[in-house]
Write a structure and sequence with these properties.
This protein is α/β, with parallel strands linked by helices. The chain is about 30% helix and about 25% strand. The chain folds into two domains: about 5-170, Thiolase/Chalcone synthase (Peroxisomal Thiolase, Chain A, domain 1, 3-Layer(aba) Sandwich); about 180-330, Thiolase/Chalcone synthase (Peroxisomal Thiolase, Chain A, domain 1, 3-Layer(aba) Sandwich). Bound molecules: acetyl coenzyme *A (ACO).
């Protein structure tokens, strides 16, 4: 059976930088509060006219260039997002159109912050069984247009950013590299702890003035519950990956955790007893870009020379659903 190698990475973030101080113009908050609780210093937000598909395209082109692969060689697109440009169809088909490729499948993944790890799991399975050879895996998110930018929404609004990350995956016969395993999970019991209630297809109509008045159109969460589950589930998923491969945390060269909150990542690091040089964080500059955090961080880590051939990489994510998971990759 072939293995799945990551041959190229890419990312794109909007030009518009929004600092913590900028947010004080919309709501009662402070740079100090945001830095202390989340580690975030600034984030990127789209401007009028920017689309998720365009960001996905820019990230994909960078990843294809790094991989040395023409868009026409891609056999399938897997795109993770919780903020599609339209209710339907998914952003994947818009990316397929923009890339100018043939009638290849475009699968949108709805697993929120875990979308990239879920997508990697699906793409890896397709490659290992021989169904597709080259897959473009993308995480893209526009969070800023859906946030409540008043003091009432500040617990969520300060956390999120926009951006896209991409990875080009290809079958390899080289047993010394590739995806070693993926582990993905969900627990719908907690669906409402972190969610976007409206629009809701079961309501008549699916969006109404009451949804605006009662603030159902904005994402909401019970922050402390999310924190508690995140710092438990991500280390568990990493341990499951290590055990499945007969490896130890000491052997991880770089852990790229979902960038939810720097305090969450630090707790995950502590629970796994990892050194600072074994963990990559860039939430300080981008905030939480949901499905895009891991591929953006991976692309930056590659460009910063933090990843070398033969390194053991670990991705772990946790998010709304709850969903969570991990992946181990020999680079
Ligand atoms: N600025 C200033 N004050 C704020 C802000 C803000 N942006 N947000 C909340 N506060 C206030 C609250 O109103 C509250 O005030 P009060 O004491 O007068 O009532 C006070 O700060 C403390 O609020 P808490 O919600 O208890 O703050 P907490 O210490 O729990 O920190 C935080 C909040 C940072 C959101 C934390 O719960 C957390 O990190 N949770 C994890 C959630 C997360 O990271 N989600 C990301 C998305 S999910 C994912 O990707 C996994």
């Amino acid at each position: 059976m072939p293995r799945t190698a990551i041959l190229g990475t890419g990312y794109h973030v909007p030009d518009r930088v929004v600092t913590n101080d900028d947010l004080t113009g919309f709501m009662e908050t402070s740079d100090e509060w945001i830095r202390e609780r989340t580690g975030i210093e600034e984030r990127r937000w789209v401007k009028e006219g920017d689309t998720g598909a365009a960001m996905a395209l820019a990230a994909s082109r960078m990843a294809l260039e790094e991989a040395g692969i023409e868009a026409g060689e891609v056999d399938a697109i897997v795109l993770a997002t919780l903020s599609p440009d339209h209710f339907f169809p998914g952003t994947g088909v818009f990316l397929q159109r923009e890339l100018g490729v043939g009638t290849i499948p475009a699968l949108d993944i709805r697993a929120q912050c875990s979308g990239f790890v879920y997508g990697l799991s699906v793409a890896d399975a397709w490659i290992r069984v021989g169904q597709y050879r080259t897959i473009l895996l993308v995480g893209v998110e526009i969070q800023s247009t859906g946030l409540n930018l008043t003091t009432e929404g500040r617990d969520m609004a300060v956390l999120f950013g926009d951006g896209a990350g991409a990875a080009v995956l290809q079958a390899t016969e080289d047993e010394g590299r590739g995806v070693l395993s993926t582990h993905i999970y969900s627990e719908g019991e907690h669906a409402e702890i972190l969610w976007g209630d409206a629009p809701a297809s079961w309501r008549h109509p699916r969006i109404s003035p009451e949804d605006f008045e009662e603030l159902r159109i904005y994402p909401s969460m019970t922050g402390r519950e999310v924190f508690k589950h995140a710092v438990t589930r991500m280390p568990q998923a990493v341990q499951a990956a290590l055990e499945a491969n007969d490896l130890t945390a000491e052997e991880i060269d770089l852990l790229i955790p979902h960038q939810a909150n720097l305090r969450i990542s630090q707790m995950v690091q502590k629970r796994l007893r990892l050194r600072d040089d074994q963990v990559f964080n860039n939430i300080q500059r981008y905030g939480n870009t949901t499905a895009a955090t891991i591929p953006i961080a991976l692309a930056e880590a590659v460009r910063e020379g933090r990843v070398e051939r033969g390194d053991l990489l670990c991705f772990t994510a946790f998010g709304s659903g709850f969903t969570w998971g991990s992946a181990l990759v020999r680079w």
